[in-house]
Amino acid sequence: MSSIIKRIIFFTIALATCSNFYGQKNKIETNLDTLFQKALEVKAFNGNVLIAEKGKTIYEKSFGKADVSGNIPLNTEYRFHIGSIAKEFNAVGIMMLKEQGKLKLDDPVSKFLPELPSWANKIKIIHLLQYTSGLPQIKWNEVNQDADNLVFLKNTLALDFEPGTRYDYNNNSVFLQRRIIEKITNMNFNSFVINKILKPIGIKNAVVDPDEKEALFAKAFNNKGKQDILKYNISGWTALNLKDFYKWSEAINSFKIINLESTRQLFEPFSKDNQTGLGGGNIENNKVANHVHDGAAFNYQALLISNPNSTIILMTNNKQNNLEEISNSIQAILNKKPYNQIDRPSEN
Questions:
Q1: N vs C: which end of the chain shows fewer Cβ within 10 Å?
Q2: Which residues of the chain have pLDDT under 70?
Q3: What DSSP string describes 102-154?
């Protein structure tokens, strides 16, 4: 066989392989477009989506409007309130200070916040991270700012249960983590997040506690055409765009902010299926095998699903409580399997 014929055969095979690869890629993108366009049409999804495979973004798009007026289309630069996922920043901040030798997970809260009642002697930092502190729930109808909640805690005479004995998902545990970070660093928590956690890993577009005047910040609304009034009863809620959210996820997965052992500790729940500082997940063979976290506030909702093969990020400013359903359809498309279209949601 001549060298010319061999080269012709080689390039023919290579061309066929490339055509098949791009054909599959185009089909995946087409199916994803169909999924989201139809979801948008039936008002089942209004928001932004990013999908990555093996560290490379393969899909990043916006669907719908940036506010209730319907006059401003979303784009991928818009930041969204991510609800409880923002609690990852205080949890990671605590572990950063642990690695710096400025606290221990067995330290009592009273070591850093001596102004609190005597029950603070019994609550350890690990109890705050695992939501086993025994603290009462925040009284959202009475608390309008951090100072209000601090007064409430100072006037709390007893805990709901003995620390470390029960799980109770509790925002007061988050509140005290943030106050401990402030006391140790002598920095406002919001500034600490931006300057000590996010900027060092290249996240420059994040904003903490954005108001309604913030540019490129999606405004949430319900199905009845009413836009949410933003209110932060306690401070410290970080809003991200898609690229920065993905950068954050990758930084967790690569132990860029906190080390392997600290990450492992943040994934350890009090008991099976309980939430932790990072939501949920696990480490296998010294790698993050799974990281899942969902969050909601007002009519915002967000979902992160990350593993070594893929990452799915969904953010909406029109909550329909269907992001898990959408992520299941995305995963089916990525696996080249039949997928479910998203049905019209019920009114909220």
A1: N
A2: 1-24, 346-348
A3: S--TT-BGGGT-TTS-GGGGT-BHHHHHTT-S-PPPP-TTT--SHHHHHHHHH
